[in-house]
Amino acid sequence: MIKANDSNRKSWIPVPKDSDFPIQNIPFGVFKKSNKQTCIGTRIGDLAIDLNTLYRLNYFEGIPLKNDVFEKKNLNEFLKLKKPIWRLVRDRIAEIFDEKNRMDSLYQKQVLHPINEIEMMMPVKVGDYTDFYSSRQHAYNVGCMFRDPNNALLPNWLHMPVAYHGRASSIIVSGTDIHRPMGQQLVGNSTQPIFGPTKLLDFELEMAFITGQGKALGEQINTSEAENYIFGMCIFNDWSARDLQKWEYVPLGPFLGKNFASSISPWIVTLDALEPFRIKGEVQAPSTLPYLKFQGRKNIDINLEVKISSNEFEPQTISSSNFKYLYWNMSQQLAHHSINGCNINAGDLMASGTISGNNPGTYGSLLELTWKGTKPIKMPDGTERKFLKDHDTVHMRAHAKAKKYQIGFGELRTKILPAKKQSFASN
Ligand code: MN
Fold first, then answer.
1. Does the annotation mark 138 as catalytic?
2. What is the pTM of this model?
3. pLDDT on residue 427
4. What's the pLDDT band for 426 if we cut at 50, 70, 90?
5. Cα(107) to centroid of ligand 1, in Å?
6. Could you tell me which CATH class the domain 129-417 is placed in?
7. Shortest CA distance to 24 belongs to which of 8, 38, 48, 40?
8. Which of 133, 180, 181, 203 could connect to 162 by a Cys-Cys bridge, CB 3.0–4.6 Å?
9. Angle 229-208-124 (CA atoms, 0-180°, nearest 5)?
10. 29-120 in CATH: which number?
């Protein structure tokens, strides 16, 4: 029993109805306070909680923590600790903010920060980033559009969680604007590429998990132990320039069409907090190789939503999906990732791949929602979207719903600015 998950627990911090952050959540993140100091924190309701100050005030007494673990600029040192320590800290936070234990008001002033007075920072220094491709409907849709509806899934897809290694340095936190990327593209039936701003800028609705310290090089993590190495999850937007991607991806896969930016939501929701929302995934047939077999309920029921807004209109929902639609679960992904002896480190990020359900309203990219631009989506100001325009903002949200509360991730919000002017050496 994870004490922090007690569904009857209430906090002395007010939690608005439908808040993503009841006392049962207790996510971890990094924020900059109004005095510009950065600290590791959590959130209940609309208050961010400074864990470093809580530590200084001796609230974590008895838990084996280094005295600067919450003073760091990211969660990586905390991630190096093991799951039992993460759990002790989360359980302790639940106790501190339980309605039975109201905090001295002098302490409250030092520890609590209204969410609109802080700035959320990158929670983790991501060492390595891998993007899976684990939604069957997404893989099918892309296969239909770019290959053949009769052979939409490539022969390996049902046998392994396919993935590519992405770029860690350009992972950015919610609220960070991006510029429309430039690159090579083929236009119309031309065989000669041109250079310019992407015309087919797209989002990919994904979730990602963050790892703790894995095993050494040469060792493997199996599916039954994989969750010990998963700290928590965030929303992930794998920005994609479809024209750049289409021209460059043969034969080595995604490169500049993807690595200009990927956005994450700022609070890492622990796997523990998501425990009550486990469900069974779809039956995997054909049967997998033994190292990919697993026991128990490994999918999680998390509602996902994408909205677009612009200077002209308020956020408009364009997709409602669910994390449960993944064919390959996180334990299988991690087992596959390490089956060859690849080492996993604290602060690695592994994204799910675009999550698309079975019907068009649940597709996780504009590529699929507009079916390669053939079915534009009407916006409230009368304009249409095949792909994203400059000054559009993409909003993603995720939450798991229980009877008495919901465990949410907050918002992942990114605005698109026009392409930056380029200068080139001329000869
Ligand atoms: Mn992706």
1. yes
2. 0.97
3. 54
4. low
5. 44
6. alpha beta
7. 8
8. 133
9. 70
10. 2.30.30.230
